[in-house]
């Protein structure tokens, strides 16, 4: 940029429906590829937490993985929309516009831009096992309540995960799950319910897709 030219402003992306008092679940991932397990986890969280909507945040890439052969964002978003197929599940790729690499920065952006929306971060129980490796994971847990949805083979491992142990004192009873969206963070709940054995890793291996990212 030459001297004297105005500095370009960062993009101000359009977000899915949100608003004062709405309870919205945020489900982030590479969705490479999206599958019925993602949809089922979203529906479990929507029902058990009393959510108005769930956003699937399709990420440009996973900072913990090699993304060299990751399919284009637009392609993964289109696939996610086809799999979700639900009027209250929204597909968004706004991270690419705001330039965030880590989940903490993405959620901090949303908290600042939508301060009156009641956001809940949703993750599968398998991801709880590595949550302590995420950038500023303790800060993330303090940004908004979290819901951990059970996954096949991850129930016991998730309970013993370093992050689960560290945050045990702020874990809510599953019987109070509907109160989570209004709870002051840090707060989290483990949700049991219908589970799908499908995983993005298995689907990539089946069709010889690049093993670039986590589910």
Class based on secondary structure composition and strand pairing: alpha/beta
CATH superfamily (homologous) name: HUPs
Corresponding CATH architecture? 3-Layer(aba) Sandwich
At CATH level 3, the topology is Rossmann fold
Polypeptide structure, described:
By secondary structure, the chain is of the alpha/beta class. It has one domain (23-207): 3-Layer(aba) Sandwich (Rossmann fold), CATH 3.40.50. It contains nine helices and six strands. The chain has a six-stranded parallel β-sheet.
List descriptors.
215 residues; alpha/beta; Rossmann fold; six-stranded parallel beta sheet; 9 helices; 6 strands; globular; disordered N terminus
In short:
By secondary structure, the chain is α/β, with parallel strands linked by helices. About 35% of the residues lie in helices and about 15% in strands.
Would you spell out the secondary-structure blueprint of this structure?
Blueprint: E1 23-29, H1 36-49, E2 53-58, H2 73-84, E3 89-92, H3 95-98, H4 103-113, E4 118-124, H5 125-128, H6 137-143, E5 146-149, H7 155-160, H8 162-166, E6 188-191, H9 200-207
Parallel strand pairs: 1-2, 1-4, 2-3, 4-5, 5-6
Helix pairs in contact: 4-6
């Amino acid at each position: 940029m030459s001297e004297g030219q105005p500095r370009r402003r960062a993009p101000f992306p359009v977000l899915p429906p949100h608003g004062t008092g709405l309870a919205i679940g945020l489900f982030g991932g590479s969705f490479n590829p999206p599958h019925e397990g993602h949809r089922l986890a979203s529906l479990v969280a929507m029902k058990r937490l009393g959510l108005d909507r769930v956003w699937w945040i399709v990420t440009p890439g996973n900072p913990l993985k090699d993304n060299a052969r990751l399919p284009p964002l637009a392609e993964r978003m289109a696939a996610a929309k086809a799999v979700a197929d639900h009027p209250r599940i929204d597909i968004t790729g706004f991270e690419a516009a705001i330039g965030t690499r880590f989940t903490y920065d993405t959620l901090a952006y949303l908290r600042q831009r939508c301060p009156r929306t009641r956001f809940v971060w949703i993750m599968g129980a398998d991801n709880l096992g590595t949550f302590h490796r995420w950038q500023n994971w303790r800060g993330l847990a303090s940004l908004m309540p979290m819901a951990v949805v059970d996954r096949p083979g991850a129930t016991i491992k998730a309970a013993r995960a370093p992050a689960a142990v560290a945050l045990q004192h702020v874990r809510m009873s599953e019987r109070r799950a509907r109160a989570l969206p209004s709870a002051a963070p840090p707060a989290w709940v483990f949700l049991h319910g219908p589970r799908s054995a499908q995983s993005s890793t298995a689907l990539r291996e089946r069709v010889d897709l690049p093993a670039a990212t986590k589910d």
